[in-house]
Amino acid sequence: MSWATVSLLGLLAATPVGAVEPTPAIAAGSSASFFIETIVVDEATRFSPDLILAESRLVEGQEYSERELRDALFRIVRLPLILDAEFSLRRGTQRGRFQLVIQVDEARRWFFGMEGSATRWSRPVTLSGTSTEDVVQGFSMLAGRRFSVGRYGVFFAAAGGQDGSLNLGYSHNNLLGRRILLQISGAYSRCGQAQVSLPLGDEGDQACRAEIFDLGLDPTLSAWEAGEGTARARLTLGVPLKGNQSIRFAGSFLDTEGGFRRAVYQEDPAQLDFLRDRTDWELTASWMLDSRDDPLFTSEGQRWEAGLQVRSLEAEVERWDFENFTSFKTDHASLEVGARLAGSKYWSLGRKDAIWGRLDAFLGRTDFSGVLTEDDRILEGQADVWRGGAAFGYGRFLHRVRTDEKWQELRWESEIEALYSTTSPSFDLPENPLAGFRVSSGLTWRSSWGVFGLELIYQDLGGD
């Protein structure tokens, strides 16, 4: 379930005091165009109006169609600093020229989040600790604050999340005066109770967690649990193109001081591998199209991304035989290179309801060595990698209040997703190929203070 909030925002017209004739309304689906003489941002008190204008990609002295203005409005609403936005037109200095007024509802500088989940697995799994379970529960809370920095920058600091990590970040929306997006973030945690990130699931930047990697990085379907501490850094650079398109370059790096590795479907949860000096990194270069009306509770629009991806996972793995008090070590190293296509499309079914479809496909090649299997084999070599997923979802607003005094939304979302992953050759592993599915349903509450969600999940990763 994606955390979200959204409304289908109309482009309204307003006539300034003293105007002789009314300004024409910007109607949805209209083919009219408007010459924008000047642009004004109203009610931006917590964050810079220049930042909002830069994200709109609108320029004074240009003519725009109704569709182009509507796309600009949605780009503003997709900012994490903005709850809602509205456009209106006022007459300019000459007939046929207009002043565009952008009115925004800003999020608070302080923000909070809470997420609770319960996952029912199709068979017992070992993800962390020393127990095998078929129901895994998770709960996390987060608190943080945003700080406006200059005309185009925002700095944030937050604590909490899945493992009590400290998160710091900075974004700049007009780098070099060309409306290039720069985002830098980092996180550090002394690991407590770890949570899980599933392959082909939602992306995230939480440090210190148990993670099931794709088969191209670890073909043994194991859970990698961080131990003493984890540091993570991420850098993103977005170069705007025409309309809603952009080119994005991103890189992330993770380093953990220790940890454990367990086969997800193993019978003895006490059997584990000790990790030393684990690092993994990822580089991507992609073309992106994003026309969603909101990044959270999306009701219409689409998002597509296509590009190249390089990922690496390295760690020293030590396996102990506690019966004979012996151990041996191997250096796990895997490098995956390939092309990825991911997209989502949303359809509004009225003021309250929406449906969507998603797909995700990756084709590449992996080169690995020192991969330790559950039956004590060490795998080395190269393999072709293919994985994909397809999902269908439905969302409905159960409660919506948007006034100057109160801004609240409650939405129910459900989604079913099919997953598939394989390598060739399969190395005679029972977990290869994987063909599973995921069903989720949950409630998400959003207000000006933050986002709070509860979710129930049924998960089948496949495998023998």
What does this structure look like?
The protein has 464 residues and is mainly beta. The chain folds into two domains: 1-107, Ubiquitin-like (UB roll) (Roll), CATH 3.10.20.310; 110-460, Porin. The chain contains two helices and 22 strands. A hairpin with a 4-residue loop joins strand 13 and strand 14 (245-263).
List the SSEs and their pairings.
Blueprint: E1 33-42, H1 49-56, E2 62-65, H2 66-77, E3 82-91, E4 97-106, E5 110-125, E6 133-149, E7 153-161, E8 165-175, E9 180-189, E10 196-197, E11 210-212, E12 222-226, E13 230-240, E14 245-263, E15 273-290, E16 301-321, E17 326-348, E18 353-372, E19 378-402, E20 407-424, E21 434-447, E22 450-460
Helix pairs in contact: 1-2
Walk across the major sheet and give the strand order. 5-6-7-8-9-13-14-15-16-17-18-19-20-21-22
Main beta sheet: 15 strands, mixed, barrel
How are helices and strands ordered from N to C?
Answer: EHEHEEEEEEEEEEEEEEEEEEEE
How much helix is in the residues? under 10%
State the secondary-structure class.
mainly beta
Could you tell me the radius of gyration in angstroms?
24 Å
Residues in β-strands, percent: over 45%
Please describe the structure with a list of short key phrases separated by commas or semicolons.
Porin; mainly beta; 464 residues; 2 domains; 22 strands; 2 helices; single chain; elongated
What would you say about this model in short?
This protein has helices at 49-56, 66-77, and strands spanning 33-42, 62-65, 82-91, 97-106, 110-125, 133-149, 153-161, 165-175, 180-189, 196-197, 210-212, 222-226, 230-240, 245-263, 273-290, 301-321, 326-348, 353-372, 378-402, 407-424, 434-447, 450-460.
